[in-house]
Amino acid sequence: MTKPKIATVWFEACSGCHMSFLDLDEALVDVLSKVQLTVSPVTDFKDYDFPEVDVGIVEGGVGNTEHKEIAEKLRKHCRILVALGDCAVFGGINTLRNGLPKEEVLRYGFIETESTVNGVMPIHEELPALLDKILPLHEVVPVDVFLPGCPPSPEVIAYGLTEILEGRIPVLPADMIHFD
Amino acid sequence: MESKSKISLKIDGGEVTADEGMTILEVAQQAGIHIPTLCHHPALSKWGGCRMCVVEVEGVPRLVASCVMPVREGMMVVTTNERIIKSRRAVLEFIFAERNHNCMFCEKSGDCELQQLAYDLQMDHMAVPQAFTPYPLDITNDYMGIDHNRCILCGRCVRACAELAGNHVLAFQNRGPRSLIGFDLNETLNGSTCYACGICLQVCPTGAIFNRQRTHYAVKGHTKAWQATDSHCPQCGLLCATTMVVADNTLLKVEGRLTADGKRPDRGQLCFRGRFEIFNDFGERLRHPLVRNAKGRWTEESWENALDRVAKKMNSLRDTAGGQVLFGIASGGVSNEVLIAFRDLLAKGWSAGTIDTFDGSHYRAVLAASRELGHPLEEASWRQLPDSDFVIACGADLSKRQPLLLSLLRRNVLENGSRVAVIGPADVMASFRSFYFETDHEDLPAWVDILWNMAAQASGGTPKAKGKTQKTGQAGGKRYLTDLQKKVGMPAKTRTALTDMVSQYLASKQPLVIAGEALSDAKCASALNHLARLTGLKDPDACGRLMILKRDGNSAGAWKLGIAAQKRPGPKRRLKAGLMLLGEESAADIAVWTGRSAPEFLAVISPHMPTKLLDKAQVFIPRPSWLEEEGTYTASDGNETAHVKKVLTAPEGVRDTWQTLLALADRTGGAPALKTLEQLTKKAAAELNPGIET
Ligand code: SF4
Ligand code: SF4
Ligand code: SF4
Ligand code: FES
């Protein structure tokens, strides 16, 4: 039997969900032995030509045009798409910017902060453009599995992956749902 | 009253009985059946606004809100099925989607009723897109803030402000999605008439209204590890019923016990002192005994050596110069146990000539008033406020020390139509007073004299004294009165208003007179006597409707234990050495005592570093704060006592105050009669004689 293939990506997020994944400790070895990790920030893979995978995992909200493109690509190439963590599920901490015009957000971030000297606005045709609002993944592409948490605990991740590997679509029981 | 008839109905198939008038929710709760709620709060009026509590009632096509639906005979109720859960989940998702409920940047996370509902209903994502409309954040007030982005418009705060605080500051403002909880008419929190009681914060189910004094809430850990202890707030003598929530030896929040004690007229409120200022930084803690050497340098010392040093000095002065040169001054904010140990140490151990509290002069004014009166001055209790139909507040700025009384007064005006007259320098009761007579501190006793004379003349029942001296507090003649009125420059208009006020007072059934902090110095004895007599006009037997506001949390305990009365001036000899027991006294309080020529020797027992006394004292001994030490406190009316629990652990090595005092007593040459905290508590109960409340 070939091992199921997994691809993971991170969008507008802090990488905490991927860290929580690594936090599986010994269980990580077990999980990794059962799957084949393809594209992933963990493998430092920067080319998003996804192979056909069984499970696509997304950390982070969809915040710019590149995120949107990758999300759509991954959706096409994966059988089960997982939104991992509050940012992918709800938008998360990034929604702090959703009340502000994006120009203001960029200007503040790249020019006005105390620590910035001679800042420049990151606007260039080769750079992905910021979306007006950061969106949860399922508002951009259909999502099969939701694992909220900031970050989701290793137990939540293990539960989700085990269920998927055993052929079920996981639904978190009440005592496993956490938004913080 | 007729007893309510019983009703029987079925909830989830089970037979239950209920009283007529109960709601489905109440009956279900009684039967141990859980129905989720959000806008409902047991201490508030019923609202029915959120529809989280919907249930199915047989024969009723739509789901009904169980929190507002009264039960009927033979009703068949279902509290959970797929349809109900779907409806609740939809309501929940709409609430989450309407404003920002991304919990990771919300201080309420982990302690939030809305979040808990999302967990319970397994809301792992939202099918409804979030609106992401920005709403304002109001952080104009230092105690609390409101983030409208977290508000779910449940209206609990509005009801609490009106029904519990009686303050009616909050209301819904705007319509539809633009609705906001507004303060007064479009005011900021700080610019409004809100006095930061924080009851709205306590009942808010979300993170919309938050505590700004509590800066360490982020480290609160898991709610499972929290400890909640029922206690009382000993800071102002009302002994409000609290629940203290602590994690990892850190105070997280103080809540009023809204439903625990229906007997309390405050309905479980707290004031800004108990709820917010408790998180203030009271300064650096004193962690070890410190001793100042001959060169003036402070050094750490062992407990035994520090106590020996104090005892040696005090003993030797007692034996050579006599106890008259020794003094002890105690905070009125410490427990009865500590006060007894302190008093016995000073009086029995060292025969000290002066034992006092920081508010001792107030007590002596009250004693002097009693002497003028010819009998002990019986005090009214704050609990009488809600039954009073006419209240005269004299020199009382209630907003500072007993802000809770403001709420009681206002509610009494609103709910019972009572009237309030204010005489004094500050008027925080502007919005609900019927009479206001502005006068400064200086003229206040004269005003009281005028008031008493006018009332006495109007009621005509009191013998008039001859001459102008009012030593005995008897009413003077007409001439005396006009002279007085002239003296304070009272215009005719004011005289008319005062006459009107006096006649309303005399016509009232259950009046109450409040003597505030402006009548607490030695010069005010006669004014207190006049006020007592004023109440005597209404209640000739007792003079029992004068309420005397006290400065410190346990002033009444200290007074009743006779601490302040032990000041024995004796022959004019200089006070040479003494012991000062501090609570959270301000620098100004301390200055009054140390401003006089510094004694040869001063030892200070204090929870915090007494920085004001660095060049005046020789020994500092640490003690726990009131949160770190068990003790009983007496309410300001002297009628009840409450146990204040130890909820935090004192810094390592710091001994309980009573232990320190007993250890000193051990060193005076005669062993102390009381040896344990239990014995001290028993003694306090015996001497104070009120029933222990909790
Ligand atoms: S109010 Fe409650 S549900 Fe809303 S963000 Fe805060 S913790 Fe989450
Ligand atoms: S703090 Fe008290 S007075 Fe102020 S708005 Fe809230 S409930 Fe009303
Ligand atoms: S501020 Fe809190 S209590 Fe008031 S309506 Fe909003 S969520 Fe409800
Ligand atoms: S709890 Fe019943 S309608 Fe809100």
Distance N to C terminus of chain A = 38 Å
**Uncertain parts of chain A:** none
* Rounded radius of gyration of chain A (Å): 17 Å
Largest sheet of chain A: 5 strands, parallel
Q: Oligomer, anyone?
A: heterodimer
Helix content of chain A: 25-40%
Strand arrangement, major sheet of chain B: 15-14-25-24-23-16-17
Strands of chain B, total number: 28
Percent strand of chain A equals: 15-25%
- Which chain pair has the greatest contact? A-B, 30 and 23 residues
Q: CATH homologous superfamily of chain A?
A: NADH:ubiquinone oxidoreductase-like, 20kDa subunit
CATH topology term of chain A: Rossmann fold
CATH class of the largest domain in chain B: Alpha Beta
What's the average pLDDT of chain A?
92
Strand order of the largest sheet of chain A: 2-1-3-5-7
CATH architecture of the largest domain in chain B: 3-Layer(aba) Sandwich
